[in-house]
Design a protein that fits this description.
single chain; about 60% helix; about 375 residues; mainly alpha; 16 helices
Length: about 375
């Protein structure tokens, strides 16, 4: 191959006669920082994104750099729009580079644009393009560290205290129906875990689900969903299982899972492989349900620990996720669903709060 020749990145099978809007959509997707130029790292990122739907390794970095260099006809170290289009349409380097751009376009450009060039550029967004690591997404990491510290303090203070919830942190922060007057327990029970398996499963799920949510929707939205799931879990448990104590962050974890399911459904057309993502989260849900039932009925814990919090948190996550998380393209139907979710969540929370305030005889007598 003669690297002094012009470079080509043909777009076979993507469009028979692309228009200006079509080329611009490809250029804008590759131009990650939106400065109107494509640098070598941006070109390399474009290729790496395409490999998620292809087999085999991408071209070596030095090849990509050379392609960029040859296509950069004004030698300013970056490709403008005209240089990029010329690179795409030149018939040379077809065997080396063309298939990666074809796959990239099929993967990145929203499906409606691929088949209809009269759709205004930017009308649709791809969910995966919203991921960003800056500012750092540390909300779930901080929560997880706090939960780990609580667990270690109890484990160090007293042997087997984390198995039977007898450590100082558990005694102070666990939800106990006989100490409902200590209102903080409706929230702080999330920091107490029963046994290593309980802790590890919750930490793993909330990190691997929470952080990706933070990368798209922001840490405060995800933390809000997490906390509302925790509170909904304790209120739900108090109403349906009034004798049960409550420990663990499963209410918050389940709220993250169902919130992610909500955003998959709302952004279905903007996501790549939504069915696969939905299956993964439903699988994670099944694993956590199994763990919770096992802890309740087959371990030797002498505490009556409730797991209704899982379902309360799941319902809260689904409802709150609908009206808190970002929806990239809102339809009239989704707007109606948004209002229904708000009304349902507010109504359920009011029922839970009023139940706990006005039906004191329903619960065990308080212990001071």
């Amino acid at each position: 191959m003669d690297t002094n020749d012009e470079v080509s990145i043909p777009l076979q099978r993507v469009a028979a006669s692309p228009t200006e809007e079509y080329y611009r959509s490809i250029f804008d997707r590759a131009d990650a920082d939106g400065d109107g130029f494509i640098t070598t790292p941006e070109l390399q990122r474009m290729i790496r994104r395409s490999i998620s739907t292809t087999e085999g390794p991408p071209p070596p970095p030095e090849v990509v750099r050379r392609i960029h260099q040859v296509a950069d006809t004004d030698h300013d170290g970056r490709l403008n729009y005209q240089e990029f289009v010329a690179m795409i349409n030149n018939p040379r380097f077809k065997d080396i580079f063309g298939r990666y751009v074809t796959k990239y376009v099929n993967f990145i450009v929203p499906r409606k644009k691929l088949g209809s060039y009269d759709v205004p550029d930017g009308q649709e967004q791809l969910y995966e393009d919203q991921y960003t690591c800056w500012p750092p997404r540390v909300g779930m990491i901080i929560i997880s560290i706090i939960e780990l510290i609580f667990f270690l303090v109890d484990e160090i203070k007293e042997e087997n205290s984390t198995t039977f919830a007898t450590g100082p942190m558990a005694q102070t922060f666990i939800y106990d129906p006989t100490k409902r007057y200590q209102v903080w327990r409706y929230f702080t029970y999330m920091f107490v875990h029963i046994g290593y398996l309980h802790l590890v499963v919750n930490l793993a799920v909330q990190i691997f689900i929470g952080i990706p949510l933070e990368m798209v929707h922001g840490w405060w939205r995800v933390l809000l969903i997490y906390v509302t799931g925790v509170v909904a879990g304790s209120l739900g448990t108090s109403m349906t299982d009034p004798m049960s104590k409550l420990a663990g962050a499963s209410g918050g974890v389940y709220s993250l899972i169902t919130a992610h399911i909500a955003t998959i459904i709302l952004n279905w057309k903007q996501m790549s492989f939504p069915l696969v993502q939905l299956f993964i989260f439903l699988l994670v849900t099944g694993v956590d349900v199994g763990t919770s039932i096992y802890n309740r009925y087959w371990t030797d814990m002498d505490e009556h620990i409730g797991y209704v919090a899982h379902f309360g948190g799941a319902l809260a996550g689904l409802l709150v996720g609908i009206f808190v998380l970002r929806n990239l393209e809102v339809t009239k139907k989704e707007n109606v669903i948004w209002w229904i979710a708000v009304a349902a969540y507010v109504a359920l929370m009011l029922v839970g709060i009023c139940w706990n305030i006005f039906y004191a005889d329903y619960f065990p007598k308080p212990v001071y």
